[in-house]
Structure formats: structure tokens, C-alpha cells
Input
Amino acid sequence: MRRNLVTAAITLALCAATFHAAAQAPAEVSRKATPPMLQATTQLPRNVRPTNYDIEVVPQAEHLAFDGKVRINIDVLEPTDTIVLNAVDMTFANVRLGRANGKDLAPATSIDAAAQTASFRFDRPLPVGSYVLSIEYGGKINTQANGLFAIDYDTEAGKKRALFTQFEAPDARRFVPSWDEPNHKATFNLVATVPAGQMAVSNMPIAQSHDLPGGLRMVRFETSPKMSTYLLFFALGEFERATGMADGTEVGVVTTKGKVAQAAGALEASKLVLEDYNDYFGVAYPLPKLDNVAAPGSSQFFGAMENWGAILSFEFILLVDPKISTIRNVQGIFSTAAHEIAHQWFGNLVTMSWWDDLWLNEGFATWMAARATEKFHPEWNTRLNAVGSREGAMNRDAVATTHPVVQQVETVEQLGQAFDAITYQKGGAVIRMLENYVGEDAWREGVRAYMRKHAYGNTVSADLWSALQAAAGKPILDIANDFTRQPGIPLVKVESAVCNGGKTTLQLSQGEFTTDRPDKAPLRWRVPVVAQAVGGARVDTVVEGGKGTLEVPGCGAVVVNAGQAGYYRTLYGGAQFASISRDFAKLDAIDQLGIMNDTWALGLAGLRPASDYLELARGVPADADPAIWADIAGSLGSIANHLKGNPAAQKRFQAYARAVLQPVFSSIGWNARPDDAAPVQLLRTTLIRTLAALEDAAVIAEVRRRFAAGPDDVQAMPPALRTLITAIIANKADAATWDRLHAMARAEKTPLIKDELYGLLGIAEDKVLAQRALELALTDEPGATNSAGMISAVAGQHPDMAFDFAVANRAKVETLVDGSSQARYYPGLAGGSADRAMIGKLRAFAEAHIPASARNATETSIANIENRIRVREQRIPAIVAWLEKNGG
Ligand SMILES: [Zn+2]
Output
């Protein structure tokens, strides 16, 4: 699954332009050495095992309901008088258990809504053996993305409704009574009765279909391979499909009618990536086809989902609309396809035994997508994105509420919150570090052996480490365990750097980086450290037991974590930091970015002067890598935001920041040049957005001039800038402008553009307009899956207001948020606050409305609020003082 980061991005100051773009993502641990996990309370008894499901569904889209029948082949493994499986929001009409040569048994059915199970009790124990369990049932079609769900969307011919499914993690049980756990793999036969004019899509190709009376059609899909329930998929609507071939597999894209040409990029990306992964994994993709199905609308929880053979992606992450799509959208489409296709192996072919090891799916897919994007699009220079991804993980990992990559998951609510930056970004960063440690070839050989050995099976982390260690012939299991079984971030300190005879001897020590526990006794990690002097060769060691020494060829500035593959922060002493500042322009761009990020984070945590970042930024040449300037723009914007409560200082700082950024923007300009590299295009939008937020009068005037020209003037509003310009206008809107944007949203017939406009209505700075957006979000007008995002958009500017509003309208708001996101939706609204009072309000809300096992998002939001207050009180004054001294 690709997480939906829209909410996270929109809470950044004025980041609304990325509204769509952001959806963009151990020792021999033999099984014996792994501490046995307690069987989670959500897990089913192990006395019965399903082997095949024959499912028949008859959707009644207009009534938001469906009829279902299922025949499940099961093996009773020990005598039992009760069969328990998962089911939610279902009514059971007829349940029978049949056995060869026996007569059908009719059990007593009972439902446990809290446990999401149904139990079938028989008069006497069933002997061990094979049976067929038949159930007739009725289910709901939801209006948020859980189970079988409907999306209503606009077309030139009026409103249409399409159906899709979303089952990860615990929602297949809303579609079919089932052993809805990843380690209960089975084969699936799906038959659907559908309107004859519509297209039905599932994991497998259609085996057979024929017309029925009443304008209906029966569609039978081929039998799926053995797989987990959460990967089952079904969609139905007025679709069209385009296909191509890759290594003998039919690769397809499916969209609503009239949109399939916009999926050409996704189709090409999928073909490239599928062929590459066939080679990388050493096991060919086993299904006859692989579709990527585009759904209008959005989810608070996810952007795309890897259903085997039928990936589901929301339109904003799959379609290129020539009116509004930017290079960031194009990149997001490629990397999302690469992520979801990686899951066809890591997750679908080999699946974690239980959700504790979700990271095996997500960390690997995150890493693999980055690898494929770098390989096929070197011109995008996304190599540097690894630093930002690691930073996302570290922000989460530096506070007390963090958790290990491998985490205990016991309840359905905990399952939803397992899909976080630790599982994805830290998982991906740890894989990157370990691959770098053992080498690319050994790593790939280990992955191939793992795929061969566990195909169609389930694994735990130790299975992966064993395969990799065997292939590498190098001990990685202790390191992997340190980084996946304990939380937090190592802090590697350079205690001394002594130059002698053309070599620098580094004395290193290991602490722990936290933002909220300065006195915490550090955990111990075995940390692979790579170091390099400017122009010299890289050397490496493993820091163990808290200490390490490294002899680096060359003298002068020495970079620790050279290449930035390590998951740790580096703290330099004063003299080393000074020489790095001096030679900054000579460093590799990825090291510049890593050092800037460390300096910023260490400064905000009080481990360096907070102004060191500004000192470093002063030494950055105008022609530095665009990613460096984008980072500087982001940090300057953040400082300006922190100064909100101090208008005089904020004004002075804005002037300083504008003076830093304007020369860079002048060299890039407003208009794209044919030879603009992708990073330059990205930097252009970052600078326009940041300068507008810094109240740059010229930039704002130009934004207004272009917007006034209207969306059809492609000189003024080229696709690369259209969303950005509209976002800045929306952010600074007065009532008349907001009304105009609202009218545009209402009139728009293209779902992709319409959804975006409704999101932008939420980002007004003006509180009266923000309130109007909140009220509009509760109406039917924006569309059922857009409303929650609008409220989140308001929270980006006015977190306290959005939170209070959502709490006051809780009954309605809960119908607008998909089930998997409920526990983190309210904390997400509050998380951008800088008001101490919010901490109490959020905690009280959580105690009343969020299950105790699912309050991690709450506690993390509270930690973020506390951290923001601490930074404003303790760090920002140092920046203001630096500015006074340095001509700000
Ligand atoms: Zn994923």
C-alpha cells in the first residue's frame, strides 16, 4: 500500500501546491532466537484452515448493498464443535457445513461485532477432515474506502457511480466471511452478476461470461493463486482498459471512460518495472495479467494498493491530466507503480505471517521503488530523495512515542496505525543501509534465495535476514536486529579528528538522538559507519559498544556517513564542523543535503547552536544542487512560521529569507526552459511557494496577474504552475476570490481537477473563509471522499479551529473518514498546533473516543505540539539573535 501523505503535506506552511504531489512515499536470528510473539487478540483459532473460496456476489450499487454466497473448502485440523471466522457488517441467511458422503450440518450462528468474528456452533465436535462451509449473506457497500465501496464522480454526462474494493488490512471480512489473516492463504474463485454494459475487474482475467435476463451479465474470473485475503480485489463500472505486454504478462491500466489515454505513463512505467523486477527477484511474476485500476476520489489512509494482479490507485496518483499535471505528478506515478509492483513479490508472493512484520512489505517496497526510479530516470536525480525519506522517519523516531520497526500488533485499531513512517521510511532506510553494507550483488542474491524458498508462503523478518546473511557471507543479523527490534536513532559523535601523515584518525562515540528526552540513557546499536575526506577514498567500520575508531585517508574536512546510507545522525565537534562549512561546496550533493538536515535537526534539539544551519546556508553557492536550495527554502519557510507570534521579528526574518532566495529564483525564472532538468522544475515551484509565503510582493503580484488571465491561458497558467498558482491564490483569498474558486469547483466536471479545487478551498489564511470551508466540507457537495481532506486542509493553516470543528461535528465527520484512519484523523488535525491548551483537549478527546490500544497517533501529535512549543521558546531566539548580528 502507498500511504496517503496528503494530510501531512498540507499541514506544512503553504504546501497546498503539493496537495496531489505529496501522495508521492541482525545475528542469526533463527526462528528460535526470535522471541515468540503472543498470539494477538485479533487472531483466529488455528484448528481450521481454509484452502479455497468460491465467491458469488451480486452488487446493488444503487442501494449500497450486495448479496453474497460463498463456499469455502476447509480442513478441520483438530476436532472442534465451533468454527470461527471473520465477518463485519453482514447478515447471514443460510449456513451449511457439508462433507463428502455425509449430510449437511446446520450450525447455530453467533456474531461478535467487537471481535469482528462470526462463530458457527455444531451439536457435536467435527472430526478432523475436509469440509465445505457454505454461507449466504448480505453486505454493505461503503462510501469510504473500506471493504466494497462506491465512488460517485462527475462526467460530462452527469454523475456516475463505480465500485472498488480495499481490504488491507482487516476489511476483506466486509466482503466475504473469511479467515481474514495474512497467513491463511487460499485460492479464490470469484463470480459476479453485473450490469451488462459495465466492466468488472478482479485479480485474474475473466474466464467466462454470459448475458442474463434483465440487462445483467455473469462474469467468472479465473482461479487466483494461493494468496492472503487482503489481496483480493473487485471493481465494477463504466471503465475502459489499455494493455501492453511485458515478458509475456499482459499489463493493463483501467480507468473510467474517456481517461485511459491519461494512464499511458503508468502503463509504460508498469511494463518497464515488471520486466526489471522479474530479473531482480529471480522469480517471474506468476499471474497472467497485471492491471492498475484508477479510482476517482481519495482516502485519508492510502493512495494505492497492491492487490495481486489488480493494483488500485486513486486517479491523482495514476493519471496525467495535461491541464494540471506537473513533473512531481509524473514522478509520483512512476514511483507509486514501482512501489505497488514491488509488492507483487514482497507481500503478495511472500507475505508476512502477521502484521508485526508489515515492514517486510512496506520497507522493502519503499526501498525498491526508490531503486527503480533512480535506475530508469537518472535525469530526475531522485538519488537525493533518500535523505528526505530518512528525515521523515527520523522526525517520527526521535520522540518517546516511537516504536521498533518490528512491532506488536494486537488489535484491529493498532493495525491501522502500523502504516506509518517507521514501517515505510525507516524500514526502507534500514534496508538501504544494510544493502550498502553487504553490497548490491550479495543483497540481490539473498533476496532471490528468499523469494525462491518462501514463494506462496509466509515469513518473519528472521527468514529474510537468514537468506541475506547466507548470500553475503557477512554478519548482518545483529545490525539488522539492532535497527528493527529497538526504536530510536543512533547519534554518532566525532569526539576527535587528528591528522597525521596524510591520514585522519577519527574517534567516534555513539549516543542517541531524541528531541524530547535529553537525559535519556542511550540504547546501543551496532552502527555501520562510512567516512570520507574531501577527495579521498571511503572507509568503513562498525561502531560497537558505543565506540569506534576509523582511519580516513586525507586531511581537512571529513564527512561521517559519506553517501548518507546510514540511519543515524552525526554530531561534529566545533573544529570539524568549521572545516566542513569551509569546504561545503566541494562535498557531494547528497552529503551536503545530509549534513544540512543533521545540522537543522541537531540545532532544533539543542545539540548545536540553532543558527548553525543559517551559517551553512550562507556558504551554499547559487549553483548548488537544486535539492539543496529546496531544503534551504523549506527551512527558511519553517523559521518564518515559528515566528508567527512575533510579527516584528517575523517581518525582519522574511526580508532576510527573501534576500537569500530571490537571487536563486531570478536565475531560474518563472517560465520553463526546454532544457530544465526535473530538479530545477521542482525547485521553481518550491521557490515560488516559499517566496509567496514570505510575502514577496513581486511574486504575489505575478501570481495574481497569471491567475487573472484564467485557466485557459496556458502562457500564464501552464500545467506546471496551474495548481501552485491556484493554491497561492486560495491561501491569500478574500471573500470574492474564494467565491470564484468555489464556483470553479462546482462547475468542474473532471474529478481530478474538481477534487483538487475542493481541497484548495480549505487552505485560506482568512479565518472566516476557513470556517466556510469547514461548513462546506460537511455538505454533500465536495463528494464523500473529499470532505475529510478539506477539513485536514483547513488544519494546515488553522489546526485548533479545524480540530474544534471536527470534534463539535464528530457524528458527521466520522462518516467522512475511512475506518482505518479513524484513530489518527483527529490527532492529525491537532498535530500542527502550537497551543498548550490543545494538548489537554486532544488527550480528553482520545480518552473518550479512541481505543486505548490505538492512541499512538494521539501521543505523537502531543509530542509534536510540545516540540513545536519548545523550539519556539528555546531555539528560535538564537536564530533571531544571529539575524541581528548578521544583518537580518
Ligand atoms: Zn506499500
About this structure: The mean pLDDT is 93. The first strand starts at residue 2 and ends at 3.
